[in-house]
Amino acid sequence: MVMLQPRSSGLFTTLEAGNSHEPSCRHCRDQRFWRWRGAASDCRTPVFELVYAAGEGSAGSRLADRYPGVPDSLAGMVIEKWDPAALPKLDLLFASLPTGTSAAALARVPGEVRIVDVGGDHRHVEGWAYGLADVWPDRIEGQTRVANPGCYPAATLNALAPLLVDRLIEPGNIVVDAKTGISGAGRGGGADGRFSYADCNENLQPYGLLKHVHMPEIASTIEQLSGGNAAGLVFTPHLVPMTRGVLATIYCRGRATTGECLDAARRFYAGRAFVRATEKPPQTKWATGSNLSFVSYAADPERNLVIAMGVVDNLGKGAAGQAVQNANLMFGLPETAGLEGMPVWP
After folding, report:
1. Which of 230, 232, 206, 207 is CA-nearest to residue 217?
2. Distance (Å, rounded) from C-alpha 163 to C-alpha 153?
3. Cα separation of 4 and 11, whole Å?
């Protein structure tokens, strides 16, 4: 799909979104393709060139039929049928399949092809680096297999990481209350219509209670960051009537002050291009259309309470933006290549 320059024979590919999924970024395949494409084509240096696209239900369509705003040079490109056994010669593959289906498919991809998997099958799996790029860039550099974090974990873990590393909060009994926009469900509104306009407009829906697929990913990362036990973790996602964005409000136990939390985040992310620690509680619109991540904190030591807040664009840092960031790290490119655009405002 995208050629890495000045290397030769380098292609990226991705897959199209299905029509019946939970509203979780792991399924948002149509949107992700064009966030990837957009991030690559916006780069002001000759890093990426789009040369190949593959899909399932969209196979046979021209790119311009699916995405009318693509450049003229790409408009006539035809989306090919996804078949991991019949790929052209590749340097790097972006894959985004529904959780539970990518492991078998990507096992058929030749070992010399580097992969960023935006699906959920390879997160914290042996042989795959976990691509939490702002927290563990050194673990991603030079890797051949990287598992992109989910959208909710991206917002949650960026906010928690500085506090866990500095032991400002307890790793257990953390409560995550998260909200996301409808684009995380992909195109089509779902087979049962749950994500149609009529169902989502002026409505707030909790879902995935007690068993959301991102729970193990969040718990495992908390334990790695803290060296402790994440027992008692509660994660409750909600679907809100907006197009994109994730806000995670996270309740933790700890005696730190608000200032200590902010100082920890500013130290932890010093020199990191995409994370902003702000005194003002973050808003989803701050990150729209970007790879930025906003974190903030409010703490009351007398109540043994720390509230951490994290915001990302679910299609940017929560999916395609972080995927491109991981690809840059994998190939030794500037981490910010193609990702320095400002958020869309208002």
Report:
1. 230
2. 15
3. 7
User: Hey, where are the domains in the chain?
Assistant: 2-148+316-330, 152-312
Catalytic residues: 151
Q: Are 332 and 197 in contact (CB under 8 A)?
A: no
Hey, what are 78's tokens? 């035809």
How far apart, in whole angstroms, are the C-alpha atoms of residue 278 and residue 17? Answer: 34
The structure tokens listed for 249 are 């409000």
Q: Per the structure block, which two tokens stand in for 91? A: 């340097």
Model pLDDT for residues 89-121, shown as the tens digit of each residue: 888 899 988 889 999 999 999 999 999 999 999
- From the list 273, 284, 279, the residue with the least C-alpha distance to 339 is 273
Q: Which CATH number fits domain 152-312: 3.40.50.300, 3.40.50.1970, 3.40.50.1260, 3.30.360.10?
A: 3.30.360.10
For the chain, give me the number of helices (H) and strands (E)?
10, 15
Residue 115 burial (10 A CB sphere; 0-12, 13-18, 19+): buried
Nearest CA to 40 among 3, 9, 77, 74?
3
Alpha-carbon distances, residue 242 vs 16, 174, 203, 204, 289 (angstroms): 22, 26, 10, 10, 14
Per-residue pLDDT, 135: 98
- Closest by Cα among 285, 195, 204, 213 to 26: 213
**pTM summary value:** 0.88
DSSP secondary-structure letter at 230? -
Q: Which amino acid makes up residue 203?
A: N
Radius of gyration of the chain (CA): 19
